[in-house]
């Protein structure tokens, strides 16, 4: 019974670590994408305000 308990502990710890690392990875990726989009939007605004013809 002791081995089964430690196996359950190991699986639970691995699952918890996986969930936490997934959450941090998701949040970091989301923040990184937000910053990248923000920079892209600023570049487009600057490009559109300085030129009269839109780029397609």
Characterise this structure.
The protein is built from one helix and no strands. It is mainly α and 56 residues long. The longest helix has 49 residues, at 2-50. The model is unreliable at 50-54 (pLDDT under 50).
Overall morphology: rod-shaped
Strands, count: 0
User: What sequence of helices (H) and strands (E) makes up the elements?
Assistant: H
Q: Let me know the average pLDDT.
A: 84
Percentage of helical residues? over 70%
Q: What is the overall number of helices?
A: 1
Strand pairing plus helix content: what structural class?
mainly alpha
Largest sheet: none
In terms of DSSP E residues, the strand content is: under 5%
Integer-rounded radius of gyration: 23 Å
State the distance separating the first and last CA atoms: 67 Å
Low-confidence stretches: 50-54
Keywords: Membrane, Transmembrane, Transmembrane helix
Protein name: Membrane lipoprotein
Organism: Manihot esculenta (Cassava)
Transmembrane segments: 6-26
């Amino acid at each position: 019974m002791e081995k089964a308990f430690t196996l359950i502990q190991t699986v639970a710890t691995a699952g918890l670590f996986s969930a936490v690392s997934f959450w941090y990875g998701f949040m970091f990726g989301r923040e990184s994408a937000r910053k990248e989009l923000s920079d892209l939007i600023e570049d487009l605004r600057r490009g559109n305000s300085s030129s009269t013809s839109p780029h397609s």
